[in-house]
Amino acid sequence: MSSSNIKKDLERAFHWYQKAAEGGDVEAMNNLAFRYENGEGTEKDLERAFHWYQKAAEGGDVKAMYNLAICYENGEGTEKDLKRAFHWYQKAAEGGNVEAMYNLAICYKNGEGTEKNLERAFHWCQKVAEGGNVKAMYNLAICYYNGKGTEKDLERAFHWYQKVAEGGNNVKAMNNLAICYKNGEGTEKDLERAFHWYQKAAEGGDVKAMNNLAICYKNGEGTEKDLEQAFHWYQKAAEGGDVKVMYNLAFRYKNGEGTEKDLKRAFHWYQKAAEDGDVKAMYNLACRYKNGEGTEKDLEQAFHWCQKAAEGGNVKAMYNLTICYENGEGTEKDLKRAFHWYQKAAEGGNVKAMYNLAFYYKNGEGTEKDLERAFHWYQKAAEGGDVKAMNNLAICYKNGEGTEKDLEQAFHWYQKAAEGGDVKAMNNLAICYKNGEGTEKDLEQAFHWYQKAAEGGDVKAMNNLAICYENGKETEKDLKRAFHWYQKAAEGSDVKAMYNLAICYENGKETEKDLEQAFHWYQKAAEGGNVKAMHNLAICYKNGEGTEKDLEQAFHWYQKAAEGGNVEAMYNLAICYKNGEGTDRNLEKVFYWYQKTVENNKISFKNEFCNKCNQLYINYQWCQQCSSKQFQQDFSKWTSKNKYIDKFIQEAQLNAKSNYEVLEWIPYNKLSNNNYYDKGGFSKIYKAIWLDSPIDSWNFNKQQWNRWNFQTGYDVILKKLNNSSNIDDKFLNEWKYHYNCQKNSFSKFIQIFGITQDPDNSNYIIVMSYAKKGNLRKCLSDIIKLNWQDKLQLLEKIILGLKVIHKSGLVHGDLHDGNILICISKFYEINRDGKHEYRVSDFNNKLYDDMLEFVKANNTLAQEQTNISTIVQFHSQAYYTSRNITEILVKENSECLEYKIEV
After folding, report:
1. Sequence-separated (6 or more) residues with CB below 8 Å from residue 782
2. Where does the Protein kinase domain start and stop, copy by copy (predicted)?
């Protein structure tokens, strides 16, 4: 039949349907609506189609009800209205329309046009399935499988999946049927049948089945293992758009499974899957960018995809994102963000993140320090199997950090970590056995674990094992083995072992004596911070043992060791200052370090008791009883011609507890090379040489005072007091205050040696120690070259000087950088390009200079006001001294700074 004839027949059919519909035939109305909907025999007109579907439905035609529901659902010929669609689906379903029943079930399932009701959805789906509808059968199987709208029933689910799958058209049902066979759900487990249905579904085009079939081939489940076939089906599924399969395909390319290794193709599929939203793929794509695998290395892209994956919930990505923030890889370094993601990853179960989160809490990195939270996360990580966390948890228990001290728990976790292979824990466990901490003392077990840790590479354990061999307590004494392990540990950078190895070389313990090697290892240990090694290195330089003699280097290392608390070094440093070995002679420093030695009470001086009265020296070679007698016998040999000055000097001599506290009347003719030095507000300052130099101790053999005997005399400053020929006690009080502060902290105040008188005008002159570098103001150009730690140390020394003043009930009335003097300085080379660093080793407050005045704080109000004034002045001074580096000295350290000022 020709197309023209067909057209004529459709037009005639339309004509008669129209006639019948207008005559009230509801079936004709439905057919007429269908013609309008599809443009058969007339022009397509959805509104007219809707009109006649509605007329027919209202007239009771079930098919029209179903069609009208579709119009409402899709908004065809009328506005979309899901409630009206549900209404007519229900009417049609109740009228027996199977298709309407199925759609009604979908409405109930999804809550479209009505409230969601899975039981009603199941009811209608079951009715349709029993009527032979394949879609309904499939959905009914899903309801039984998931227990939606009915009780879960895997056997019924299997039944309906099987019915649909055997129908040959529904590939999804085939895939799900295979899953039932694979897992033994609703039927006996049968991997061969699972493989059969995966294969059928995959060949039918189901992408998920392709992926599952690939897994069967990969693992040899229900068929022989075949990586090439696995790769083939992974590839087919990936090309079909399955994102998870894209990820799996990328993995195959990455590792060369079933195909040749191809990092570029791996990168391609990771990228595809990541762009389609697969979180695992995002993480792996980040790894490819980070390591430059299959693409150029790009840390910014690595960070981008790691962040995407982390935000998508991938815990590994969260952990690696923290590393990006921690190290500034692909983004700016940000410890707060690192902490945030460690926390997220830890809460997500990542054990490494738990360990690192604990570390952040312990050290206050990226968050406030919180030992209890640190303990919590170490415990979580330890319970998760992290051996490093076990060791650190043990340390928490041992030291009572974030929890109560518990040596038994410490021992328990050291043991767990050691048995898990952590060498640090092995060493710590050995210490527990050695000292009987948390367990019974067991030297054999101690030796066993030292040996295990040492053989595992722990340098501390190597040193401890060497000690075991050297002492022969935990095992048989074996000096050769001791030397071997000292050497291994030292080469592994253990500082204590370096020191011990140096001793071996120095004494020739089971090795040939080798002073050069001893010097080498002392030097290495000293540079690593070992104080004993610093002292021994100084001795090497002093005596030229293993190196050329170098008194300046000897002094340097004595000083480092002394500052580190080594008492022998303190004593030797005092001798350096006394004899001018490697440094300038300095009375104040000699006394300071002798006093530090005595305070530590670990050195017995040769002349500990006075030869004359057999009384114990109260300070180095200073017998107060005998010294007072000698001073008193000499009172008649001098006078200042001023009773107040005489009394001041005499009282100082009688009460002096060391040579540093001695004041003298100094004859003017004992001061030479008297030259103008500087000008104060009310007097001139001169520099001179004191020919006698300060008193050291009484010489009983020669019956005279031992003096410092500098060959060229001793440099001093002469502070000439204008109009002072008739000085009174009130005026002298100011110098008494200075002297008392000097006694309380001699290293922080310019020393007064005594008083003399100008024969030309009878004005009195204060003889004081000479500050070699002058005042702080003159040294600012050098001070700005210091690192911030040394600048802070400078300020600390000034603060400590003020502290002495305030504790004496006094205030500094004129504090400025002209009244802060630098007594000793030293330039030394710090690198090979010729740069030098200015080191300040002592700072003194010069308490009296022209406008300076002391105010005795007799009442609380005055004291409060003046102390506040001093603090304000000091803040201003700190800013000036730091020369625009206040961000470091004031802002970052303001809390510390204010505390020290208040003290």
Report:
1. 825, 838
2. 671-903
Classify 704 as helix, strand or coil.
Answer: strand
Which amino acid, 740?
N
Kindly state the DSSP code that residue 184 receives in the 8-state scheme.
T
Per-block mean pLDDT, blocks of 10 residues, the chain (903 long)? 62 89 90 91 92 93 93 94 94 91 91 94 88 88 92 94 90 94 96 95 92 94 94 89 87 90 94 94 96 96 96 96 95 96 96 97 96 97 97 97 97 97 96 96 96 96 94 91 95 96 90 94 97 97 96 97 95 91 85 82 58 77 88 93 93 89 95 87 84 88 81 86 85 84 75 93 92 77 78 78 79 73 42 27 36 33 36 35 34 29 23
Closest Cα to residue 561, out of 599, 593, 609? Answer: 593
Nearest to 243 by CA among 277, 204, 195, 194: 277
The tokens for 542 are: 């002093």
The angle subtended at Cα 876 by Cα 871 and Cα 882, nearest 5°, is 120
> Which one, of 204, 247, 211, 262, lies nearest residue 232 by Cα?
211
Compute how many other C-beta atoms are within 10 angstroms of the C-beta atom of residue 827.
10
DSSP character string of 334-367 = -HHHHHHHHHHHHHTT-HHHHHHHHHHHHHTSSS
DSSP letter (8 states) at residue 728: -
CA 695 to chain CA mean position, Å: 54
pLDDT at 868 (0 to 100): 31
> Per this entry, what is the length of the chain?
903
- Determine the pLDDT at residue 858: 34
The candidate with the shortest Cα–Cα distance to 770, out of 497, 517, 586, 565, is 586
Judging by DSSP bridges, how do beta strands 671-679 and 714-720 pair with one another? Answer: unpaired
Tokens, residue 353: 């993140």
Whole-number pLDDT of residue 827:
27
Contacts of residue 760, defined as CB under 8 A and 6 or more positions apart, other chains included, come to none
- Residue 802, classified by CB atoms within 10 Å of its CB into exposed (0-12), middle (13-18) or buried (19+), is buried
Residues 6+ apart with CB under 8 A from 884: none
How many CA within 13 A on the CB side of residue 147? 3
AA identity, residue 127: K
pLDDT of residue 650: 93
Q: Which tokens in the block code for residue 100?
A: 């309407």
The owner of tokens 């040749």 is 260
CA dist., res. 280 & res. 316, Å (int):
9
Give phi and psi for 184, each to the nearest 5: 65, 45
- Residue 451 CA to residue 478 CA, distance in Å, equals 14
How are beta strands 664-665 and 752-757 bridged, if at all?
parallel
Q: Which helix (H) or strand (E) holds 672?
A: strand 671-679
- Contact status, residue 755 vs residue 766, Cβ threshold 8 Å: yes
Q: What is the pLDDT of residue 836?
A: 25
Return all residues near 556 (Cβ < 8 A) that are at least 6 apart. 538, 582, 828
Q: What is the predicted pLDDT for the residue at 852?
A: 32
Chain centroid offset of residue 745 CA = 39
Tell me the sheet residues that pair with 854: 812
Task: Record the pTM.
Answer: 0.65
First-to-last alpha carbon distance for the chain, in angstroms, is 114
Gap between the Cα atoms of 638 and 544, Å rounded: 48
- Cα dihedral angle (66, 72, 75, 77), rounded to 10 degrees? 70
Spatial distance between the Cα atoms of 119 and 122, rounded to a whole number of angstroms: 5
Q: How far apart are CA 388 and CA 406, in angstroms?
A: 19
Residue 524 bridge partners (DSSP): none
Residues β-bridged to residue 340: none
What's the pLDDT score for residue 863? Answer: 38
Dist. CA 140–CA 360, nearest whole Å: 54
Tens of pLDDT, residue by residue over 755-793, are: 999 999 999 999 998 887 777 777 787 778 877 777 787
Is residue 583 within 8 A of residue 552, CB to CB? The reply is yes
